[in-house]
């Protein structure tokens, strides 16, 4: 089953976050990867929410969510056109009401990172182990 890919585009809007979660859930069900579905759905939700919160200032109207299965790893990528501020892991203070999404991403994933896209924007990627 290695080498599978599924990609979807979503409008940068709050209503797209649950649509992105459902897309991940459906793809992983079809790929028989239900055992990583909860974590992958949460990760997709956090990354899609970040796009809605920050990338609306970019030059595009859409973000892309890609899922790939390769060599025992699920790769989840969220790409947008907002390039002026790359996401960074930080530890928010106890009084802050936001800023914890990447802490969840870091805790749940095998690895994660961000890379610039050709043209405008960035891609945030996450690796989840799928064996077992």
UniProtKB/TrEMBL annotation:
InterPro entries reported in the protein's UniProt record: Anti-sigma-factor_SerPK, HATPase_C_sf, HATPase_dom
SUPFAM superfamilies: ATPase domain of HSP90 chaperone/DNA topoisomerase II/histidine kinase
CDD domains: HATPase_RsbW-like
Domain Histidine kinase/HSP90-like ATPase: start-end pairs: 16-126
Keywords from the named record: ATP-binding, Kinase, Nucleotide-binding, Serine/threonine-protein kinase, Transferase
Record keyword Ribonucleoprotein present: no
A Pfam family reported for this protein in Swiss-Prot or TrEMBL: HATPase_c_2
Keyword Protein biosynthesis: no
MF GO annotations: ATP binding
Protein name, entry field: ATP-binding protein
UniProt organism field: Streptomyces smyrnaeus
């Amino acid at each position: 089953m290695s080498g599978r890919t599924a990609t979807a585009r979503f409008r940068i809007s709050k209503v797209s976050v649950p649509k992105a979660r459902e897309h991940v859930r459906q793809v992983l069900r079809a790929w028989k990867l239900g055992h990583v579905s909860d974590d992958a759905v949460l990760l997709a939700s956090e990354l899609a929410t970040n796009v809605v919160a920050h990338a609306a200032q970019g030059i595009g109207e859409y973000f892309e969510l890609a899922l790939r299965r390769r060599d025992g790893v699920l790769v989840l990528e969220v790409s947008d056109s907002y390039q002026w501020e790359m996401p960074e892991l930080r530890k928010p203070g106890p009084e802050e009401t936001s800023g914890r999404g990447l802490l969840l991403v870091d805790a749940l994933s095998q690895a994660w990172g961000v890379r610039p896209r050709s043209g405008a924007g960035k891609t945030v990627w996450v690796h989840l182990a799928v064996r077992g």
